[in-house]
């Protein structure tokens, strides 16, 4: 019994001595991937071999290899963790700074009045040369002009007279009136009315012109109106 224990202790001591001696040569027997090759005998003795130098285990030995780093293969990924609780709601940000007020655009052109009107309540004695009895100043645009004047005879009873009025922008649109007085000398009056379209390219004055064609006449209560229109034409 005592002899068996002594042999086992002796064998274990030999194994330790063998590994210790092998440790001195580990640097020279490591393979390129860090593996240590040994031969194991049934008696418990390990012997390090250099496979790179052609060394192999004997018939009664078993070959065992170790990785110098001692690390095994990476384990499989663990299962995904549980979803964490929802975070707290975000705090509402402060309102942004109000932007500057934009510049005021330029003022548009003034809206012209729908019409112009001028009245001359004075009396103008008409001669054979045209007289300007009433005027109106117009901005550029298109207008329908209406002029009128009350014409009367200046002479005594039984007198016959004739007068004519027109706008200075169109000589073709005329109004001719025939007048006479009664045998008792009562004054007879007639209205000369002129209507015409007027196109004004630049600001100008439009006038109602009147003249005596026969006899002595005068003009009074004269007026001239100009109404702005979209086009200088009459609808059918």
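-> sequence recovered:
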């Amino acid at each position: 019994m005592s002899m068996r224990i002594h042999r086992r202790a002796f064998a274990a001591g030999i194994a330790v001595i063998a590994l210790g001696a092998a440790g001195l040569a580990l640097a020279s027997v490591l393979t390129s991937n860090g593996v240590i090759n040994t031969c194991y005998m049934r008696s418990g003795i390990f012997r390090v071999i250099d496979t790179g130098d052609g060394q192999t285990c004997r018939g009664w030995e078993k070959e065992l290899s170790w990785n110098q780093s001692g690390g095994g293969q990476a384990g499989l990924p663990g299962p995904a963790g549980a979803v964490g609780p929802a975070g707290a709601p975000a705090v509402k940000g402060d309102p942004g700074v109000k932007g500057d007020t934009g510049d005021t655009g330029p003022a548009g052109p003034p809206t012209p009045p729908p019409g112009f009107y001028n009245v001359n309540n004075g009396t103008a004695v008409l001669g054979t040369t045209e007289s300007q009895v009433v005027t109106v100043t117009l901005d550029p645009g298109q207008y329908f002009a209406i002029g009128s004047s009350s014409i009367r005879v200046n002479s005594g009873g039984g007198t016959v007279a004739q007068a004519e009025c027109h706008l200075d922008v169109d000589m073709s649109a005329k109004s001719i009136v025939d007048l006479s007085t009664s045998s008792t000398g009562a004054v007879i009056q007639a209205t000369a009315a002129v209507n015409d379209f007027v196109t004004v390219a630049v600001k100008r004055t439009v006038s109602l012109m009147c003249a005596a064609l026969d006899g002595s006449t005068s003009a009074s209560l004269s007026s001239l109106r100009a109404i702005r229109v979209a086009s200088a034409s009459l609808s059918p």
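The chain has a mean pLDDT of 76.
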